[in-house]
Specification:
This protein is mainly α. Helix content is 75%, strand content 0%. The longest helix is centred in the middle third of the chain and has 15 residues.
Length: 77
């Protein structure tokens, strides 16, 4: 059986599941597999985001409308 068929079979089984204990086990499994994207980034990427947020806090950001205007002008959109 291919992967898509296996997933569909599992979804159908899960949709009909009425056992709270088994459902809680699946919820726990799902949570254990979830990865926070922040933890997957490099230190350099995190530092760049932190610096960008600090710039915004200091009022150094460029308003979205201004960025869009400059892009439209630059690319004749």
């Amino acid at each position: 059986m291919d992967l898509q068929a296996e997933k569909l079979s599992l979804l159908e089984w899960l949709a009909g599941l009425n056992d709270p204990k088994t459902l809680k086990e699946f919820i726990s499994l799902k949570k254990s597999k979830e990865v926070d994207w922040w933890d997957e980034m490099s230190e350099d990427e995190r530092a760049a985001i932190d610096e960008g947020l600090a710039q915004l806090d200091r009022g150094e950001g460029i308003p979205h409308e201004q960025v869009m205007k400059e892009v439209r002008e630059k690319y004749n959109l």
